[in-house]
Amino acid sequence: MSNLAHTDNMKQIALPEPSAMPLSLLVTGDLIGQRLDRALALAIDGLSRTRAQAAIEAGRVTVDGHPAKASLVLEEGMRLTLAPSSPTAETLTPDHASELGPLDIIYEDDHILVVNKPAGIVVHPAPGHEHGTLVDALRAHVPHLNSGGDPLRPGIVHRLDKDTSGLLIVAKDTPSHAALTEQMKAHSMVKRYLALVEGLVTLSQGIVEAPIGRDPRYRQRMTLITERAGGRNARTRFRVLRHVQGRTLLEVQLETGRTHQIRVHMAAIHHPIVGDPTYGRSQPPQPPRQFLHATHLEFAHPITREWLTLDAPLPDDLAQFLRKLES
C-alpha cells in the first residue's frame, strides 16, 4: 500500500490504476477541515469531486479503516484509504452492446465522436446498472476506447441522465479528453436543451443561479444547498419558445454542468420538467418520460480547434407528445 502524506503545498498525487494497490492518505495541512469528497478531489490528480462521491458511495473509501459519508469533516491525523476499482470494472466487455442497437452517431473522426443518446440508457456502469450502458456500445464501436483515467467511464466527457436523450461527446484518446474537459471547466462549450415545464413561465428569458449538492436526507436526489454545506455553484439560462396548454417549452442553456442541474433549477422556480418523476409533480397528460432533450452542442475540436456546431431534433416520443398537446 502506498503511504503518502498530503502537505500544505497541495501537491496532487496520481490516481491509481484499477490494478494498483489501495492508496492511503494522511490528513494534514490544507486537507484538515475539508469534507471527505472535496479532500479526495483536492489531493488526487484526475479524481473529480463527483467521482470521489461515487467511490465513497461504492464503499471504496474508508477513514481510519471505517466507511464514511462524503460530508465527513476531516481532522488532522485521519487516514484515508481509496481502494482501486474492481478488476471487473476495467475489463467490462461490449457483450451487452446488442441490447442498445446501433449508435446514432452525429459526428465522428479519429479523435472524437458525438452520439445522440436515446432515453432509457445509462451512460456508464453504476450500481444497479452494470451492463447495457452506453459505454458498452461505445466499446463495441471503438474497441480500444480508453481515455480520462476512469475504466468505468472511458471517453466520457460529460453525462446525461438515464431518461434524458440527446447529444453526448465522447473522446477517443487521452489528449482529446483532457482538452474537452478544459473547455468544460472554462464554460466555453455551449450546451442547449429543449425542456417542457409545468406552468406558464411569464419571463421571456431568465437565469437561475443557485448552488446544487446531494440531498443529505435522500442521497439519490440533488437539491439546492449552500456551498458551505457542500453545494457547487450552478447557473442555468432559459428562454421561452412558446406556451402549450398551461405548460411552457423552453430552450435551456447550461453554464455549469452539475448533476440534475436543469431538473433541480426548474423545480426550484416552481416550473418542474414535465414527466420528471423525482423533482416534478404528476399532472395529466404525462409524456412517456421526462421532457428533456440535449438538442444543441457547440465546442472547439480538441485537436484541430475547428468550431463544431451540432444539432439533434426532438426524438419521436417527445415530438409526438408535443404535437398532441398543440392539436
Give the CA-CA distance, first to last residue. 65 Å
**Structure classification:** alpha+beta
How many domains comprise the coordinates?
Answer: 3
Largest sheet: 9 strands, mixed
Q: CATH architecture of the largest domain, please?
A: 2-Layer Sandwich
Strand content is 25-35%
Query: What is the 3D shape?
Result: globular
What is the N-to-C order of secondary-structure elements (H for helix, E for strand)? EEEHEHEEEHEEHEHEEEEEEHEEH
Q: Could you name the CATH class of the largest domain? A: Alpha Beta
The percent range for helix content is: 10-25%
Mean of pLDDT: 85
Say how many strands there are.
18
Lay out the secondary structure.
Layout: E1 2-5, E2 13-14, E3 23-26, H1 36-43, E4 44-45, H2 49-57, E5 61-63, E6 66-67, E7 79-82, H3 87-90, E8 105-108, E9 112-117, H4 134-141, E10 165-171, H5 174-186, E11 190-198, E12 205-209, E13 212-214, E14 222-224, E15 235-244, E16 247-254, H6 261-268, E17 292-300, E18 307-311, H7 316-326
Parallel strand pairs: 1-3, 2-4, 10-17
Antiparallel strand pairs: 3-7, 5-6, 5-7, 8-9, 9-10, 11-16, 11-17, 12-15, 13-14, 15-16, 17-18
Helix pairs in contact: 1-2
